[in-house]
Amino acid sequence: MSLMELSLDTTDEAVDWVCTLLAEIIDIDDIEITKYLEQSQSKLAEQDLVQPPWTFTIRLHIPYNVHSRVTVEKIVNLLSPLHRTGLATTIQTTVVEAKSTGAGIHNPLVHRIGKRFVVLAPNAPYQSQVTDEVILRMQTSLAFGSGLHPATVLALQLLERYIVPTMNVLDLGSGSGILSVAIAKLGATVLALDNDAIAVQATQDAVVLNQVEQQVTVVEGSLGVGSDLGHWMGGITSNNVSKIESEPVFDLIVANILARVHIALADDFRRSLRQPGILTTAGFTTDHEENVVTALTEVGFEVIDCERFNEWVAFAYRLS
User: Fold this and answer.
1) Is the dihedral of CA 37, 158, 144, 78 positive or negative?
2) How far apart are CA 16 and CA 198, in angstroms?
3) Residue 173 pLDDT
4) At 77, which helix (H) or strand (E)?
5) CA 294, 297, 302: angle at the middle one, nearest 5?
6) Stretch(es) of the chain classified as CATH 3.30.70.120
7) What does the DSSP assignment read for 258-290?
8) pLDDT of the residue at 284
9) Measured CA distances, 272 to 82, 89, 227, 252, 277 (Å)
């Protein structure tokens, strides 16, 4: 049966949003993400003269039948805000006889982060280049944190520098589970905490896929006053969300979450860390940088490190 192939190019930060939006219409496992390849000059001439920094191409396939046009219109309408804001191209459609699986199988997306992390699809073939590489295999999921978003990249870069095997770590807002898996593969033990049931399942799946079950405990819950904030991304939380009390039991806390949640939890972060504890914050842009840093320094944190990518920023702090 013929298929209709839909494709679009995106920036780093748009990948998670595209996958989440598309999951409302199609099976998320059918989404293929590959590295963006520069188009020919003739094709570029047909588009805007100034090209955004596309980094990934997303492809999906739907049956080519009488319902195709309606499905395509739904997908275009869902993704149009990303196109209007310059995060993605318009959708291109082509009728094909079979899925073009060659790019995904023979040239898998290998996403290198920092000096050691390599993010791969679950079954992508890969031969390690150096002995100390840390392989993170991640499924496409509805939970934030594919490893392609700048906030996740920045968080991983900081964790690579500060995680040591003896640490007890809290991953607050674990999302896809990529940070918890990375921490475990660096030798530490982790409590992965999220108040979204989909994220909790995604984290648990990532933990099993990467075989770090002995080091990671996954819990649906929030830290301190975080349980009073509802779903941080505007979704629905279940009635059995646990509240983790703020006690000094962690050596490091990583939080890749919204700026307003960082600010609300500043005191809980302080009370949950042993001396001299380390906190890493990500998930916000420079527009919120001053407010987040001010809130944390006021309760006793000192900025010791920083990573930036375009408008995204991440900090490491130590209790002063």
Assistant:
1) negative
2) 14
3) 94
4) helix 68-84
5) 130
6) 3-105
7) -HHHHHHTHHHHHHHEEEEEEEEEEEEEGGGHH
8) 94
9) 38, 44, 15, 9, 9
Cα→Cα distances 106→169, 252, 316, Å: 37, 39, 38
How many Å apart are CA 150 and CA 14, to the nearest integer?
10
CATH 3.40.50.150 placement within the chain: 144-319
3-state secondary structure of 105: helix
- Distance (Å, whole) CA 61 – CA 93: 10
Structure tokens at 36: 């963006």
| CB environment 215-248: b (16+ within 10 A), e (fewer) | bbebbbbbbbebeeeeebeeeebeeebeebebee
Say what the pLDDT of residue 230 is.
61
Cα–Cα distances (Å) from 47 to 89, 90, 165, 263, in that order, read 10, 10, 50, 42
| CATH class of the 144-319 domain in this structure | alpha beta
Q: Average pLDDT for consecutive 10-residue bins of the chain (320 residues)?
A: 90 81 78 75 44 81 90 92 89 86 53 90 83 89 69 95 97 95 98 92 95 97 79 53 88 96 96 96 96 97 95 93
CATH class of 3-105: alpha beta
- pLDDT for 98: 80
Tokens linked to 311: 């408008």
Strand pairing category for 216-223 and 242-244: parallel
pLDDT of residue 303: 98
In terms of phi and psi (left: phi > 0; alpha: psi -120 to 50; beta: otherwise), the region of 130 is beta
Residue 40's pLDDT is 40
Of 147, 160, 162, the C-alpha closest to 206 is: 147
Rounded distance between C-alpha atoms, residue 145 and residue 17, angstroms: 10
